[in-house]
């Protein structure tokens, strides 16, 4: 019949387009599913990394606390031993003074102890003094060692705190740089290689990848260096000059 071939061709073309449309939708759905799975895996990895970091920090703090508690306990024990030694020295001095007073009292009564008794007492006292002196020196050495260890731990803790602070500062500066670059050149995560602004982005960031370009750009900038009070110019800004916010809806539409 007339027009049958044309109708059949249009029907086949519609079927082909429908198959392509369904295939494209299927591929888009698969790509979206894969992208979502990748994002989920990335989120899980970040969560696991954050959890491991938190656990490590808690374990380090617990170890530091246990070590400090053990050192404080040992230091307290050493100080107690030092106090006991000092008390023994005081008792020994009191015994020497008491014997001297009793010897003087006995001498006034005409009673004198034999020289062997004095020698035995002096020998015993000197032996005890030597023992207490050795113990005092030993306890002082232990105290110095513990203090050095505690000071080392405190220094390590201060160093770790300083490193954490510096890391936060670096992350803050990096975030500010990313925000500035995003305002100037767009979000790099959503910036395809074939984007219209890609050549401009490469031009303005070429100094980050080439020393020769950095020297050339610096040379060009140095030609316009002027004092702050120069009437025909101004100083070069220390960083990027960010664009002002849109003042009306038309400008905002053009920026977007």
Give a written overview of the molecule:
Pfam families: PDCD7 (PF16021). Residues 1-42, 152-171 are annotated as: Disordered. Residues 1-10, 25-42, 156-171 have a biased composition (Basic and acidic residues). This protein has a domain at 2-111 and 120-164. It has helices at 4-108, 115-185, 198-204, 211-222, 249-255. The mean pLDDT is 81. The chain has five helices and no strands. Helix 1 (4-108) packs antiparallel against helix 2. Helix content is 79%, strand content 0%. The chain is mainly alpha-helical. The radius of gyration is 43 Å and the shape is elongated.
The overall average pLDDT, rounded, is 81
Q: Supply the helix-strand structural class.
A: mainly alpha
Total helices: the number is: 5
Give the uncertain stretches in residue-range form: none
Shape designation: elongated
Radius of gyration from CA coordinates: 43 Å
- Main β sheet profile: none
Could you give the count of β-strands? 0
Q: Beta-strand level of the residues, as a percent range?
A: under 5%
Order of helices and strands: HHHHH
How far apart lie the N and C ends?
A: 56 Å
What fraction, in percent, of the residue positions are helical?
over 70%
In brief:
By secondary structure, the protein is mainly α. The chain has helices at residues 4-108, 115-185, 198-204, 211-222, 249-255.
